Amino acid sequence: MLSADDLELFVTVGSSASLAAAARTLGITPPAVSQRLTHIERKLALRLVERSNRGLKLTSDGELLFKRANEILLQFTRMEDELAQRGGKNAGVLRVVAPLGFGRAYVVGLVIDYHATHPDVRVDLNLSDRPGIGLATACDILIQIGELRDSEQVATVVAPNRRLLCAAPAYLDRYGAPAAPADLRDHRCIALRENDEDVTLWRFENARGERINVRIEPLLSSNDGAVTKALALAGAGITVRSEWDVAEDIAARRLVPLLPGWKLPDADITAILGRRGERAARVDDFLGLLRRSLRPVPWRQRGGQVAG
Question: Is the pLDDT of residue 70 over 90?
Fold first, then answer.
């Protein structure tokens, strides 16, 4: 029979791009994660995960276990909520998931502030390299950047955020700047692989509503936004980054925004939640703190309005 620890481990594995990423989240070694995963598969006599050089992929049985494990863990949380409320406490566990870079920059400090005023609440912060919609049922608040693809989820925008095409002055001095989106096909581009998106298709729209999609062939790519930004800062190529991440670099002229007559799709900061009637007070308290921390929008205060 599977234990709650087994379920929590499998949910973490199913939400991660690799065993190494799951190990970082769990605070154990990759071999330990692999051993425990194999133990779960042997208990069930089922293959749950396909491992390859490209990462992890859940089998159909794994997808079912991932879904059911999320539901069971959520029921545990609700039971704790009910017992805590009977005792008149704002207690229990608050599970928050956020993207790695944004989480480090804006959510970690928020958790510290929250815990200072709610010392009885246990906070579990998961900074994931794959903070996709599949994690929503495993947590109380999923902070996501970009388009919300699952219309069944309850979501609220907590801050505006744009995607910006940019490059370092050193790159522009050497290769020049694109005059139109189609020119990007002849430039050195840097792609960020995240959330199973089509990262080589860059979509643009101008003020007249004209749209153009450009299929780039990136010379450099990474699954880590900090890496793609570092490559751009080093003059290695043109990349697309979130406004929250590059506003200060643009204000300091370390990066230059490109194609001012065209814009990429916005990537607002969104909080994905459970149904309002089922949310504990601690969730609404954290959501309120999150909203207040992003008003006024900090990257626009520090970096100013970025042209784009």
Answer: no
